[in-house]
Write a structure and sequence with these properties.
By secondary structure, the chain is α/β, with parallel strands linked by helices. It is built from 5 helices and 5 strands, in the order H-E-E-H-H-E-H-E-E-H.
Length: 152
């Protein structure tokens, strides 16, 4: 998770939402990614989707069955769907996302009772305080910045 946090810090340096992701295979980091929605002007440039794309290209297959994902925030519905489709074995995430978390906070997309062809294991709350603090600091800074603009 520490490597995913480093990726999240890269996102912050670009004024992106601080979400970082790494995909691991055989105990080694296969790929790294961070949010690039603003940078790319692309709604689907989430850290998880970028990481999955990189991993599929690197392996040469859409099946990432022997891979695990570490991400600093509970995946959203789009990312959870991409994780299922790519057949990631297990997802470890940092902070829970009460507004749009699709793993367990708002939805339970990984639940096989929904009819998905792949069961994704998951574990949340890994370095949760650190991951959560990054998100809170990021949004606090945005509010402060916007308040200064309104004042001027």
């Amino acid at each position: 998770m520490l490597e995913a946090i480093i990726e999240a810090e890269k996102a912050v340096a670009l004024s992106e939402c601080p979400i970082g992701c790494v995909i691991v295979k055989d105990g080694k980091i296969l790929v790294r990614a961070h949010n690039l929605r603003l940078t790319r002007g692309n709604a689907i440039a989430h850290a998880e989707v970028i990481a999955i794309d990189k991993a599929c290209r690197k392996i040469g297959d859409f099946r990432l069955c022997d891979c695990d994902m570490y991400v600093t925030l509970e995946p959203c519905t789009m990312c959870a769907g991409a994780i299922i489709q790519s057949r990631i074995r297990k997802v470890y995430f940092g902070a829970y996302e009460p507004k749009s978390g699709a793993v367990c906070s708002c939805n339970d997309i990984f639940n096989v009772e929904h009819g998905h062809n792949h069961k994704v294991e998951f574990e949340g709350g890994i370095l949760e305080d650190q991951c959560s603090s990054m998100m809170k600091d990021f949004f606090r800074n945005i509010r402060i910045r916007d308040a200064k603009k309104d004042y001027l």
